[in-house]
Amino acid sequence: LPYVPRVPPMALLGKVTATTFALERPCCIFDRHASASDTVWLAVAFANASAIFRNPPSRADVPPYKELPTTHSYMTLETAAAAYACPAPSPAVLRVGGDTACKDQGRQDPCNGPLPSPGPYRVKFLLMGCHGPKAETRWSDLILLRRALSPSTIDPVPTHRGSDVVVIASLLASLGTVLATAVLGALGAKVWGSLCQRDLGTSAFARRSYRTHHIPPALPQPPPPGCQCSPPGLGCFALRPPAPCHRN
User: Fold this and answer.
1) Is 76:114 a contact under the CB 8 Å cutoff?
2) Of 14, 12, 43, which Cα lies nearest the Cα of 26?
3) 235-247 per-position pLDDT tens digit
4) Measured distance CA(80)–CA(37) in Å, rounded
5) What are the TM regions of this chain, as residue ranges (predicted)?
6) Of 11, 39, 158, 190, whose CB is crowded by the most CB atoms within 10 A?
7) In the predicted model, is pLDDT for residue 94 greater than 80?
8) Which band of pLDDT confidence, cut at 50, 70 and 90, is reported for residue 180?
9) What CA–CA distance (Å, rounded) separates 158 from 104?
10) Kind of pairing, strands 121-129 and 39-46?
11) pTM
12) Are 66 and 96 in contact (CB under 8 A)?
């Protein structure tokens, strides 16, 4: 068949990891060749072993996952052909290598275990009936997995930096210091100004004359009886009563 399996081109979380990769589901590819009892398999092989891969004559001859290190290929994801019919009722993405329990299983059943190395790999879909293969797709392009780094190879403190990086870091640090100084200076000036205004207001209030409005002003006191004020500078003097008049 002319169909070529491929990794989905759209953004997908975990599309390719260190042990797994996603594939588009081949919808409507086997409709003309499949019957109700047929199944679709996925053949996975190292890229350099795909040319020598031979389709198994029956289900009993399907290469299992556990022989991948020696045979460099295996078959997995056995699915009823109806799952790939039009319209496809199943999810549009398949995940290769998603069964982490495969390494602990001693059975011969097809297993979709984690891939042991980055590859690269090639895959193809194979339609099998009761009497053997009936149709197959082309091999995919190279699929390379991500490489996991060993914790011992990660340098937590890089020691070698270029001169440009050092210069840029120094400039950024200097600009940060200048900016912090300017901000602190502006805040200090604002606070100092507010304090000065507060002091000026208090002093002006203290110097302002204050006169109560509910106490009447004191009236001038009249001089004591028998005393009148002389012209300025002479003070006050006592007045003597006039002498009594005598009749002759």
Assistant:
1) no
2) 43
3) 444 445 555 555 4
4) 7
5) 165-189
6) 39
7) yes
8) confident
9) 40
10) antiparallel
11) 0.60
12) no
